[in-house]
Automatic annotation (TrEMBL):
PANTHER family: LIPOPOLYSACCHARIDE-INDUCED TUMOR NECROSIS FACTOR-ALPHA FACTOR, LIPOPOLYSACCHARIDE-INDUCED TUMOR NECROSIS FACTOR-ALPHA FACTOR-LIKE. The chain crosses the membrane at residues 53-76. One of its GO terms (molecular function) is zinc ion binding. Residues 1-18 form the signal peptide. Its main location: membrane. Belongs to the CDIP1/LITAF family. It is a peripheral membrane protein. Residues 16-99 form the LITAF domain. It comes from Erpetoichthys calabaricus. This is LITAF domain-containing protein. The keyword Metal-binding applies. It is found in: Endosome membrane; Late endosome membrane; Lysosome membrane. One of its GO terms (cellular component) is cytoplasmic side of lysosomal membrane. The keyword Transmembrane applies.
Length: 100
């Protein structure tokens, strides 16, 4: 009986972890949520903003040989930027995904 309970609890925790990973994969795209300021159900509008990770990568690439302007790539590539999810109605920042 104890082994059945342990296997059941392990499988439940495994499925919860999978759901958490999937939510982090889709975080760069618009999300359906309720705005806390205007209390409306909205589809967020993500804004890509330069953050610490982009600047850190610029310095890192510059130090290790990116002298011909290659070190500026992280400032313009969306994959290195933080994502600010904003409410399209009231322009309130609802969630910020930091890269670093």
């Amino acid at each position: 009986m104890t082994s059945l309970f342990l296997s059941l609890s392990f499988s439940l925790s495994l499925s919860v972890d999978t759901a958490m990973v999937l939510s982090h994969i889709l975080i760069d795209f618009p999300q359906q949520t309720t705005c806390q300021r205007c209390n409306q159900q909205v589809l967020t509008s993500p804004q890509h903003v330069r953050g610490c990770y982009a600047w850190f990568m610029c310095v890192f690439i510059f130090i290790f040989g990116g002298f011909l302007g290659c070190f500026l790539i992280p400032l313009y590539a969306k994959g290195f930027r933080d994502v600010h999810h904003m409410c399209p109605s009231c322009q309130e920042v609802l969630f910020v995904r930091k890269r670093f």
